[in-house]
């Protein structure tokens, strides 16, 4: 098969993968704390004997957009917006520690503090946080969790623990298939961030630019159609060439 078909085929495959990435971003345009996935295409020279004239297209994952999303005030004491480069530690589905910026927290019927995705929130010692029955709850800007016990007065407010909020730069984290971030260097654990780490009663929204993503989706679709057309034309040219060779023979 002509090398143009291979090149166009790899380009079409990369376009489909890029379209999947943009679709994923659009699907999470309303997900609190979501960070847009970044993807790109790079040239991949095909190695082998002879002159290196074939260069395929390769879809590459470039991490995520680390910019802080828009802030939406809710007034809910369980909603928290993390400051820049601050990540909330949660228990990953398979065990271990993972990180998120989704601050729309909730309490299960048994008092466990979880994210909107159902992941248990961890305290500064790495243990899931569970709260006893209470009539009021407050999360401080340093991550401390305080409650007023059921049937008690405001003067009985007690600190039960502190959310584990770590400080991490984007290059220190990698997104998993479950949407949670993980430390790329587990041998160097991320440390508790000092001082003020969050704002209560506010949610950080997704940083996906929905309008831009829609335009990108259209561009990728047109690019894919062009690559398919190249494949079709290349195949027709190859068939014509084979026919001419047979007639000439």
TrEMBL record:
Residue intervals passing through the bilayer: none
Main location: other
Record-level GO BP terms: bacterial-type flagellum-dependent swarming motility
Occurrences of domain Flagellar basal-body/hook protein C-terminal (ranges): 201-244
Limits of the Flagellar hook protein FlgE/F/G-like D1 domain: 87-146
Recorded GO CC terms: bacterial-type flagellum basal body, rod
Localization terms from the record: Bacterial flagellum basal body
Pfam hit, one: Flg_bbr_C
Superkingdom of origin: Bacteria
Annotated signal peptide: none
Swiss-Prot/TrEMBL keywords: Bacterial flagellum, Cell projection, Cilium, Flagellum
Domain Flagellar basal body rod protein N-terminal: 5-35
Subunit (UniProt): The basal body constitutes a major portion of the flagellar organelle and consists of five rings (E,L,P,S, and M) mounted on a central rod. The rod consists of about 26 subunits of FlgG in the distal portion, and FlgB, FlgC and FlgF are thought to build up the proximal portion of the rod with about 6 subunits each.
Similarity annotation: Belongs to the flagella basal body rod proteins family.
The protein, known as: Flagellar basal-body rod protein FlgF
Organism: Pseudoxanthomonas taiwanensis J19
């Amino acid at each position: 098969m002509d090398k143009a078909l291979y090149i166009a085929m790899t380009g079409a495959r990369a376009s489909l993968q890029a379209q999947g990435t943009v679709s994923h971003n659009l699907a999470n345009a309303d997900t609190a704390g979501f960070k847009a996935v970044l993807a790109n295409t790079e040239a991949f020279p095909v190695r082998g004997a002879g002159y290196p004239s074939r260069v395929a297209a390769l879809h590459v994952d470039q991490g995520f957009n680390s910019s802080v999303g828009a802030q939406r005030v809710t007034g809910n004491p369980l909603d928290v917006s993390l400051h820049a480069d601050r990540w909330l530690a949660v228990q990953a589905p398979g065990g271990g520690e993972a990180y998120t910026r989704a601050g729309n927290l909730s309490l299960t019927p048994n008092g466990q503090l979880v994210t909107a995705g159902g992941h248990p929130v961890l305290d500064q010692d790495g243990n899931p946080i569970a709260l006893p029955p209470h009539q009021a709850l407050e999360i401080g800007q340093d991550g401390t969790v305080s409650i007023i016990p059921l049937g008690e007065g405001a003067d009985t407010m007690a600190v039960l623990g502190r959310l584990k909020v770590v400080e991490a730069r984007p290059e220190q984290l990698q997104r998993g298939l479950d949407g949670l971030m993980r430390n790329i260097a587990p041998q160097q654990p991320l440390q508790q961030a000092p001082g003020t780490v969050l704002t209560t009663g506010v949610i950080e929204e997704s940083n996906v630019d929905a309008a831009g993503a829609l335009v990108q989706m259209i561009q990728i679709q047109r690019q894919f159609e062009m690559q398919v057309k190249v494949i079709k034309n290349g195949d027709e040219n190859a068939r014509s060439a084979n026919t001419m060779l047979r007639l000439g023979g």
